[in-house]
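In the current project phase, the collection of sequences with tokenised folds has grown. One resulting record follows, to show the layout:
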Amino acid sequence: MRIIQIVGYKKSGKTTLSCELIRAFAAEGRKVGTLKHDAHQFEPEPPGTDTWKHREAGSSATAIVSPTRTAWVLERTTSVEELVSQMETRELDDLIIEGFKSAPYPKVALIRDDGDADLLGLSNIVAVALRKPLPSIEEQAAAQGIRVFILPDPGSSEPLLAFLRS
């Protein structure tokens, strides 16, 4: 299973880029899984639904199943390593991880401006994605032997995709 992390700061375009990769890999017939880090207290279902009521009543593990989908909610945190291990049992070709900056997997750093340069200090950066040219970031990345891709518009990720496929 190929693992690719997309890291960057809030509103940098991580989800947009993740979705581009997911669509491209899925269009090739690859089975793709995703992990998403949320720094907030997300609510998986709207208040008042049956499974929300189950959780509010004290259930520590809740599942909801339909003819086409299953969702689990566990009332605990889970490490990225445990999540990756569980994904490995799903027979995936690719796993796109959005966030989890400190995790040890190959990363694409999405950098908006020079203020995001500290992302180049993360472990396992294999590529930098920019929405516009940033000469100082490009120089720093080159000095570290990291490939830089300028993706001015959503949907312009083909050069990055080709790199990640190799």
Observations:
- The CA atoms of residues 151 and 157 lie 6 Å apart.
- The longest helix spans residues 14-27.
- The chain has a mean pLDDT of 94.
- The chain has one domain: 2-40+77-165.
